[in-house]
Amino acid sequence: MFLSDYEWQALTLSLKIASVAVIFSLPFGIGFAWILARKHFPGKGLLEGAIHLPLVLPPVVVGYLLLVFMGRQGFLGKWLYETLGLSFSFSWRGAALAAAVVSFPLMVRAIRLSIENVDKKLEQAARTLGASPFKVFFTITLPLTVPGIISGGILAFARSLGEFGATITFVSNIPGQTQTIPLAMYSFIETPGAESEAARLCVIAIVIALLSLMGSEWLARRSRRKLEAK
Predict the structure, then answer these.
(1) Distances in Å between the alpha carbon of 151 and those of 51, 144, 185, 220, 222?
(2) DSSP string covering 12-49, please?
(3) pLDDT tens digits along 88-125
(4) CA-CA distance, 222 to 57, in Å (whole number)?
């Protein structure tokens, strides 16, 4: 109730973008995490480095690369726009894509660690009994990985809420379209006399992040207890 319409708009847009980023990146996160945890092949180190690259690259570089590849005149973005009419530039879709790319390494790392903790003997026993690799994955590996999937998803959600550099570089700072909480704070900080608005959004960002982390731990523990009970 104490937020203005402008601030509510930034808050709801941030939640929307973070949710979309996690939902669409989660299947890829699970797939890549399984590959890194269970497969050995030439170039695995290169793949792992590419997945974790957004963690060490400056966010502006990530945003620039997204602009080059996914912009309306980019290598892939131009084809998507001309063929499907789908544009990521200067829209909330681009903000969700930027958030997904930046948060993807955190998601993959959490899920990978969970898969590595699954006892391989259980998977081998199922294969010995005639189960296909897909059945082993969906009936044994995936259920036992649920705590890690929850942790990875919520960590990615929290990271997506805080994304700034890649977003402002790729899709700019457009109120109602791409202006998330960090971008709205940036606008308030640059506006004389708007310190209180920036402080409110700062508090909201901290509260959401803390709740996300606490929720992640609680859900992960609850999932472990259920798995142990079985």
Answers:
(1) 18, 13, 27, 6, 12
(2) HHHHHHHHHHHHHHHHHHHHHHHHHHH---TTHHHHHH
(3) 988 999 999 999 999 999 999 999 999 998 888 888 88
(4) 35
Give CA–CA dist 15/161, Å, rounded: 7
Alpha helices in 39-132 (DSSP H): 44-56, 59-70, 77-84, 92-116, 120-128
CA of 144: how far to CAs of 81, 172, 225, 227, in Å? 40, 41, 11, 7
Q: Are 82 and 146 in contact (CB under 8 A)?
A: no
**Structure tokens belonging to residue 40:** 């050995």
Do 34 and 227 contact (CB within 8 A), yes or no?
no
Q: What token pair was written down for 172?
A: 């700019």
Is residue 205 within 8 Å of 182, Cβ to Cβ? yes
Radius of gyration for the alpha carbons in the chain, expressed in angstroms and rounded: 20
On whether the CB atoms of residues 88 and 95 are closer than 8 A, the answer is no
Contact 161, 96 (CB under 8 A): no
Give this prediction's pTM.
0.89
